Amino acid sequence: MIKILMIEDDAELAEILTEYLEQFDIKVKNVEDPYLGLSMLSVEDFDLIILDLTLPGIDGLDVCKEIRKDYDIPIIISSARHDILDKVTALENGADDYLPKPYNPRELEARIRTILRRQPSIKKDEKEEEKELVLDENKQEIRFKGKPLDLTAAEYGILSYLMKKEGGVVSREELIYNIEAISEESSNKSIDVIVGRIRQKLGESPKEPRHIKSVRGIGYKFIP
């Protein structure tokens, strides 16, 4: 099923489009508040966004720009504004298509499928699927064997930092100064304690750890 986030403050139009697209196995989640729409992108995965331009609190062109800063998701502008400057600006800000209102919902459905056909197939790299540990920075989580780990901010900070430095040796001091959740007053011993807790959550033996290896006199390195 195709999942779409629609940011549209016309509730009646949103309901019409949602019911119509549902017939074609397209599930639409509509929000009227653009700020709520932006926040939803960090907690849910969508295949495409339908974005109105005339929104409360922030112009849709700015919303488009904000989305494009962090996401490659396709965007269709759905707007009653017919000014050619709006259309050009929307496309320059990263929109994939511009559909002026009013339009037939059938045309919207056709455009959705056309854009998604152009997108590369979104499949996980086989090597990533084989990995026990996967870092998802958008969701601020680390999955172990497919399930999110229950980590404190400091534990997440250390493990994610080590994972991004994959194979490289990271000193305890580097961890202290580069992780916001760890005070700069912390000692090397406190880093060892946090690493010990992470290893426990990964089910690792301190003597023969699988992923977080100790480097004598320096710190640690991550082995995928």
Tell me what you see in this structure.
With 224 residues, this protein is of the alpha/beta class. It has two domains: 2-118, Response regulator (Rossmann fold, 3-Layer(aba) Sandwich); 126-222, Winged helix-like DNA-binding domain superfamily/Winged helix DNA-binding domain (Arc Repressor Mutant, subunit A, Orthogonal Bundle). The chain is 41% helix and 20% strand. The protein has helices at residues 11-22, 34-40, 60-70, 84-92, 105-118, 126-130, 153-164, 172-178, 188-201; strands at 2-7, 26-31, 48-51, 75-79, 97-100, 133-136, 141-144, 147-148, 170-171, 212-215, 219-222. The strands form three sheets. Strands 2-1-3-4-5 form a five-stranded parallel β-sheet, with helices on both faces. Strands 6-7-8 form a three-stranded antiparallel β-sheet, with helices on one face. The protein starts with a strand and ends with a strand.
Largest sheet: 5 strands, parallel
Structural class: alpha/beta
Strand residue content? 15-25%
Residue share in helix = 40-55%
In the CATH hierarchy, the third-tier topology of the largest domain is known as Rossmann fold
What is the overall number of helices? 9
Would you summarize the structure shown here?
With about 220 residues, the chain is α/β, with parallel strands linked by helices. The protein has nine helices and eleven strands. It folds into two domains: about 1-120, Response regulator (Rossmann fold), CATH 3.40.50.2300; about 125-220, Arc Repressor Mutant, subunit A (Orthogonal Bundle).
